[in-house]
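Pasting as-is:
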Amino acid sequence: MKGNNKRQRSNFTIKISVLEELESLVPSGQRSEFVNNAIEEAMKDFARKKALESIKKLKKMGPKLSSEELVKQIKDARRY
């Protein structure tokens, strides 16, 4: 994402209250960058949450191991 600086105009519908606050807090020449950064951060947070959900599902499916047992299994698997 960060490596690509190409821009494209896009239309979104947002709450009037959000728009009013954006306009009151962020100067007009900085709003696109502000919104772009906010969307990037929201997508990173969303991806983290999805990854955490996946990890939690895997934990429920897998065998119950202590941290030490898990490390030992990983080390043993890396030997091959």
